[in-house]
Amino acid sequence: MSIIKRKFSQNEEVYGIFSALKDPAVVEIADSAGYDFFVIDLEHSSLDMSTMENMIRAADTANITSVVRTPQEDYGTILRVVEAGSDAVMVPHLTTKAQGTKIVSMAKYPPIGDRGVDASTRAAKFIGGSSVKEHMKKQNDKLLVIGMIEDEEAVNNINEIVEVRGLDALFIGPSDLSSSLGMPGQVTHPVVRDAMKTVIDKASKAGIKVGMPAFAKEQIQEAIDMGAKLITTPPVDASFLYQSLKKHLDDIKS
């Protein structure tokens, strides 16, 4: 059982980070720092599939939960991600129940979904034709499907989205959501915050965990108070590295 699934079962918060850096060593560093999960980003990066698989392999070795963000509901990408052995798949811009059902169908085996069967993959431990049924059950039990809520349409459809069978969690993207609501960059605006709270409340009632990014301790506490359980802090490793290096250089030059 992944760290996310275990802590979710105990109703605990989990902490992770999105990675723009393309190196398995960063996964191991995040684990050593104490993070619960690591988001390997295929949406906003030029990361190739081979490096992605090695980052998943590093996560397995380090015992940190691997989450891969894909470019929307692209079946070819989702299939390769789950067959590479990722613990979770995160799909951006989930806006409707039909889209959520489609995403789950791509990621999960029958009877939950319609994922194609291949037991020669890393996820199947290369077993070939033996114990395929057992592999399919293990994958359905293991894999988390996370939809990103980043659009006003998604907020309007949240009652239907949370009904999707096999959708394990939602993750709010405040930047895109604020833009969709006509307030680009104003992630703390009351209208944006109300939309986020609506998503968290509806999902929580349906038994679906919700996540969001947060920078500082105060923002993390606000997220927890709102009901968030899946928190990325700092949101992106590359930005944090830049800020840390710049502060260090400015300090020694002052």
Q: Any idea how many domains?
A: 1
| CATH superfamily (homologous) name | Phosphoenolpyruvate-binding domains
CATH topology title = TIM Barrel
In the CATH scheme, the class would be: Alpha Beta
By helix and strand content, what is the structural category? alpha/beta
Name the helix and strand elements from N-terminus to C-terminus, one letter apiece. Answer: HEHEHEHEHHEHHEHHEHEH
Number of DSSP strands? Answer: 8
**Helix count?**
12
CATH architecture: Alpha-Beta Barrel
Task: Supply Rg.
Answer: 18 Å
**Approximately how much beta-strand content do the residues carry?**
15-25%
Neighbour order of strands in the largest sheet:
1-2-3-4-5-6-7-8
Low-confidence segments: none
The proportion of residues forming helix, as a percent range, comes to: 40-55%
What does the largest sheet look like? 8 strands, parallel, barrel
Question: Which overall shape is indicated by the principal axes computed on the Cα atoms?
Answer: globular
Gap between N and C termini, in Å? 49 Å
The whole-number mean of residue pLDDT values reads 95
